[in-house]
User: Fold ABC transporter permease subunit from Azospirillum melinis.
Amino acid sequence: MRPRSAVWLALGWVGFALLPWFAGSGTQPTLAPPSPGPAGSALIDGLTNGRWWLLPAALPLILALVATALPRLHARQPAILLASGAFGLAWTAAQGFAIGLNGWAWGWLGALFGPLPLGQGGFGAGAALTALSFLFLMTNGFAGLGFMKGDRFTAGAIGLVLAAIAAFVFLPVGYVLSGAGDTGTGAFSAAALWSRLAAPDIWRLSCLTEAKACGVVWNSVFLAVMTGIATTLLGLAFALVAVRTGFRAKKLLRVLTVLPIITPPFVISLAVILLFGRNGTVTLVLADWFGIPVSRWIYGLPGVLLTQTLAFTPISFLVMIGVVQGIGPSLEEAAQTLRASRWVTFRTVTWPLMRPGVANAFLISFIESLADFGNPLILGGNFEVLSTKIYFAVVGAQNDPGRAAALGIILLCMCLGAFWVQRQWLGKKSYATVGGKGDNGIPSQLPRGIKIAAYATALPWAAFTFVLYGLILFGGFTENWGRNNSLTLRHYLAAFDLSWGPGGLIWSGRAWGSLFTTIEVAALSAPLTAAVGLLTAYLLVRQRFKGQGAFEFLTMLSFAIPGTVIGISYILAFNQPPIELTGTVTILIVCFVFRNMPVSIRAGVAAMSQIDRSLDECSLTLGAGSVQTIRRVILPLLRPAIVASLVYSFVRAITSISAVIFLVSPKYELATAYIVGRVEQGDFGLAIAYSSALIVLMSVVIALIQLLVGERRIGRRTATPVTLQEKPV
Assistant:
């Protein structure tokens, strides 16, 4: 334990004594006395500038130094490390929240201890490094006391994930939800909370007996269930066709499957309106050819369900394809050896082994549907859902943050309910199919009925997607899509024009700045999202510890809250000490990492559930540590989940709008904010042209991710059209 603890202790002293404690002071070590403002290291600032509250952080560092100086395997060393790390972390957080820019952050502290002569700014490099040092000293102490069987890596990983979730999920969401019982004066009232939670328009069920709209909760639940079922079935059908059939155009099918996930906001809804709206192409054709009356049927539940199914099916497919690929052929061969038919084999062997993928795909789509507000905003009509109610409560004429917070609590409860149902359905059965034994059999042929159903579901949907995106790409080359379809390049030139000047190449197009910022943010956030998500999945599937269920639910918390609420919560939480991020590129990266992390977690959980624990145990028995086991055994078997995590997180960082619409700044404008601005000004041509360029860019990036990560190699033969063709009965 001592060498690793000594490293973290040394880093803690560097952060405390050398690096600037506050943000905005640079990142270089300095020994010069600070100015009266928030500058300098904690040690120098506390001694020379009157910020005495920074000095107690030296005490746990001294205690940890004493612990590392004790003889190896000393009985008290872990306890001292645990105590010093816990005290240091608690003190750093407490003084950071208690003291703001102008002194005490809460009036009662000033009344208790008297006024402070000066305040402090947000944490900088020194504070971050010191807090990280305290965290890992504490987890090393836990491991030394036997927690997680003494595995320092696992203990540290759990501590790091919990600390990150507490800082960047629980803290900002807590800021918003704490206002659910606000009376308007800053005081909490249980009566105000109950009146908002039990409002009649939220729970109304008169639609069952009268011609009135249902309450917004029942609308949201019904839409989410229908979307979850539709996207899960479509994702499963696409995965079965791609893995278990001899379909020859599999690569094209996979491209069409993931196209909707790489579409910027509002484009799918706009395309659906131009196809099925009152003056849409399909609507007018049906009216002219078949005499079907023109109507506004697309506005309401049908339109929102259609667009959400289009938008979220790729997520289900990315989860399901790795699960279908991981099913061991030997289990199916054993069933067939015992004279089971194809249908019995599929029903009793194949389908049960796909349950983790089905459950996780449904859960993700269910929560995505609840949190989506862009599609209901455009196509909802009189069909209200919770996300739009929350949005208008925050930014509309109501201006009622308390109501928005109460609706957010209801959303959280619905997420928790879906999460509990998923866990009950999966149970505690084992779904491991990837073990250490050779398993190079050929996947079993699908029953004829299942195969026909998969083709009948996937191929028409793929054709519809192809037509829809053909129209979207075509719209970027028209003067005014739907009204004046004459061809032009002016939208692309306005967005991405290049010219030569005295100094060389000039990026004169209006969209270049937002495009470069978007690529930078996506490239930084995607690997972080995948790393944090897959590490969390490893802890959930491979480790057992107290509070694991609560830990798993906390990881889904940011996914259950609508993006608009997440954006507002980040502004409230990170616009003041101790964590000041508003207006920086860091807040965009952090928002994307923790907003998209749940999908990486669910993809990792679904894939890791298929990997037999015996592989980990063999590696550990042969002397490999946890890090080496993860790197050489688990990660190569998780390549489908890695691809899904990287693709989803990169694409969502480019296409998300709801969470970041409040976080962008003139210096850091994202592509989606620029597109929404064009849509609001009626410049649909430029918005569609920009969206088309993003679709091409993301398609190239997805291909590169697939190439770099590669395919999972588990010693199984590839099924060919000959081996999977139907044999005569």
